[in-house]
Write a structure and sequence with these properties.
This protein is of the alpha+beta class and about 475 residues long. The chain contains 11 helices and 20 strands. The longest helix is centred in the middle third of the chain and has 18 residues. Its cofactor is (R)-lipoate.
Length: about 475
């Protein structure tokens, strides 16, 4: 269906005719022309030649125009968007269903790939008419997903709003009618005459009592337990709760989780992983944060956390031990003259590792700003493949969940990963005295094929010294 739009000078033509079909438009235009109310017709359809200008008409100074528009009631197909070069396919996870009303840019489904989820927005406002692929289907770029009737209304989202006024508009029941004055004033009829009393029936014998049956106490308790029993339904989401129904649910593992499992197992099978530990006194960096937090927030608008000192310290230690920043590629060793730190972030869909680029040139504030941008993308689920591509070193902070100690797994194709853990007060010896200090265990897992024990221990010690006293980074010690 197409519409017509009239010019401002077309005051005679009714506005009710601004939305008609193509065939009806021809009939209306011919009728108006015969009545002398249209002098010239200009349209995108093939009806222009049917009407000529009437030079003898007294309204020849004005011009009436009818122009068609093709933007209303258009059916649009939604297809799978193009992926990054390293991704060829993904699985569909629907957020909407057929018959739902959507707005422009609403996410109607997501394509779960090996590395990230690609949202598919609605091209316009309308109603989803038909879905061509089922949930969980593997699709490739260009595959048709569904079609949307642009401009249509009356989808599922508008039904609850329409039902509420109907329920509110139900009229209250009518009040009971009061008796009329005429009825109350009418005289009451005289009472009927008493009939003669009937003879009493002969007395009957009382029925014999039936024998009573006894119920065991155990049976009574069992019946009471059955009355008080409750029927439990299985949980709606088995991954979030266990209520004791002794049932099971089997779900398909998403592609991101499958890819993470493959990469972790490949890392164990390929690398000769070895882990070394150390502990860091966090009292100095905590005092530093406390002293400069207000000024830092005032200037940059964000708070200083523990990640920025550790990322800066890791960059400082990587420049001191470049072999930790290198990687084995076949029979070669690739040394990289830049430091891109991957930060492990836990999301409901799996572990993602977005990358901070050129950390060797960033200070604490620049690192915190970059981390805030990554965190905002992670919360909104908008981390792209480009955000996770590359990386020369990884930091995983399990301390946010209260971890005391652990051994992280290398993130291929890297050669080392630093594991941060929780900060806990512990007694330590300082200059012959036992004192209580906030301490953190740190772990470095490295590929022993490339990195020797000496380089790994020196590297982790450099991180310890730089975190405990950030001034050595400025001094280059």
């Amino acid at each position: 269906m197409a519409g017509i739009m009239l010019s401002n000078c077309s005051r005679i033509i009714p506005r009710a005719l601004t939305r008609i079909t193509t065939s009806s438009r021809v009939r209306v235009a011919r009728s108006l022309h015969q009545e002398g109310r249209i002098l010239r017709l200009r349209t995108k359809c093939n009806i222009t030649n049917e009407f000529k200008q009437v030079n003898t008409h007294p309204w020849s100074i004005q011009t009436r125009q009818i122009r068609s528009s093709q933007v209303l009631w258009e059916m649009k197909d939604v297809v799978v968007p193009p992926f990054a070069d390293s991704i060829s396919e993904g699985d569909v996870r629907w957020e909407k269903k057929a018959g739902d009303q959507v707005k422009e840019d609403d996410v109607i489904c997501e394509i779960e790939t090996d590395k990230t989820s690609v949202p598919v927005p609605a091209p316009g406002s309308g109603v989803i008419k038909e879905i061509f692929v089922e949930d969980g289907t593997t699709v490739k770029p260009g595959t048709k997903l569904c079609n949307i009737d642009i401009g249509a209304t009356g989808g599922a989202s508008s039904e609850p709003a329409a039902e509420a006024p109907k329920a509110a508009a139900a009229p209250p029941p009518p009040p009971p009618s009061a008796p009329t004055p005429a009825a109350s004033a009418a005289p009451s009829p005289p009472p009927p005459a008493q009939a003669p009393a009937a003879p009493l029936p002969p007395p009957t014998r009382p029925p014999q009592a039936s024998p009573t049956t006894s119920m065991p106490v155990a049976a009574i308790k069992h019946a009471q337990s059955l009355e008080g029993a409750k029927v439990q339904l299985p949980p709606t989401d088995y991954s979030r709760e266990i209520i004791g129904t002794r049932t099971e649910q089997r779900v398909k593992m998403n592609r991101m989780r499958l890819r993470i499992a493959e990469r972790l197992k490949d890392a164990q099978n390929t690398n000769a992983m070895l882990t070394t530990f150390n502990e860091i006194d966090m009292s100095h960096i905590m005092d530093f944060r406390k002293s400069h937090q207000d000024l830092f927030v005032k200037k940059y608008g964000i708070k200083m956390g523990f990640m920025s000192p550790f990322i800066a310290a890791s960059s400082y230690a990587l420049k001191d031990q470049p072999v930790v920043n290198a990687v084995i590629d076949g029979g070669d060793i690739v040394y990289r003259d830049y430091v891109d730190v991957s930060v492990a972030v836990a999301t409901p869909k799996g572990l993602v590792v977005p990358v901070l680029r050129s950390v060797e040139n960033k200070n604490f504030a620049e690192i915190e700003i970059a981390l805030a941008a990554i965190g905002d993308k992670a919360r909104k689920g908008k981390i792209s493949v480009e955000d996770m591509d590359g990386g020369t070193f990884t930091i995983s902070n399990g301390g946010v969940f209260g971890s005391l100690m652990g051994t992280p797994i290398i993130n291929p194709p890297q050669s080392a990963i630093l594991g941060m853990h929780g900060v806990f007060d512990r007694p330590i010896a300082v200059k012959g005295q036992v004192v209580i200090r906030p301490m953190m265990y740190v772990a470095l897992t490295y590929d022993h094929r490339l990195i020797d024990g000496r380089e790994a221990v020196v590297f982790l010690k450099k991180i310890k010294e730089a975190v405990e006293d950030p001034r050595i980074i400025l001094a280059g010690l």
